[in-house]
Amino acid sequence: MSLAACARSLRWRACRHLRAHASLVSGDPDWRKHAPNFVIRSLEDVRQMGNVKQAATGTWESRRYLLRADGFGFSFHNTIIRAGTSTRIHYKNHVEAVLVTSGSGEIELCHPRQQEGEGFAVFRLGPGSFYGLGGQECHYLRAAADTDMHVSCAFSPPVDGSEDHDSEGVYPAVGSDGRPRYAYSRNEVSLLFRPPESLRAGSGASVAPALPHCVETRLGPVHFHRPSQSDGAPMWELARSSGLDLNSAYCYILHCAHFAETCLVAKSGSGEVVGFVMGHRPDGQQDTYFVWQIAVGSEWRRCDLARRMLEVMRRRLGVAFLTASVTPDNAASRRLFQSFAESSGCPLRVDEDWMPSSLFPPDAEGKAEHLHVIGPFQ
Q1: Which CATH code is given to the segment(s) 214-358+365-374?
Q2: Residues in domain N-acetyltransferase (predicted)?
Q3: Would you say 245 and 232 are in contact if contact means Cβ atoms under 8 Å apart?
């Protein structure tokens, strides 16, 4: 990720979790714990986040209220088309829905090789006019000479906040990897189009927190993220320092690359990895989340991070059962899963015959693994 993208991400995190309280009229100042996916922003919030974009041509200003990082699956902007200006636009990588809220103007549809005035259709726009660009239509957008035209726009895939039109009026599509694309293949679609976090497991999981998700601890805020490949090495380091059964560094990096959907990394305010969960859905058991490994840094072990990470994963995936294998001598893990079952109000069942030590090769010194099954969750 570029330095500019990192700076935008830091501004976004700060504003998402620390702002928006100024407009609270009444109620619980800590309302976010009741509605973790709710977003409310003023124009001043958007400015402080660095999300007001001036076109290089000077013909428009875009106030980007909702961006890719918010996890809604689309972005939402309020754009001012400057009076007496015309802008060539060709969204080859996006679809856009537009509502005119004030001012007036025109939209001229044209073929990509046509210039302004050569288009095949011109429509008048005014307050309440709506148009949708669902087929990569090339067009010119003009505001009347006497006043600016204000429009509200929704984009899919969502923009990340840095985009400006190129010489052809095209926005690049920016994926979850932070890389801008002026064209993309079918294999890259999953990086660009993702369902909202709160709906990934269906409507029943609508209370699941979107990522990144911030929790307060006695040592300061901790942000929960879907891991990226660059998180694999610090996760391996944390596993080693925590005394866990250590796998190869490649294994952790591979999980971050191929199983990020079912893994979680916890980072301190400084960006240090202080915890993680690695797991998967067992084959044929879509209602079950198997916890393969969970770790918390030694300084953070009295911050309830392990339980919180398990709860976030359970709610995000919308599963009915959470399972984990534990060796008989691992008292800490047994306490964690017993405590999680009690806090969730669910029964805990232990299958002591799940993986006997006889399954391991003689030289592996493997211990029996008891399967802990928590659920069903309500």
Answers
A1: 3.40.630.30
A2: 222-364
A3: no
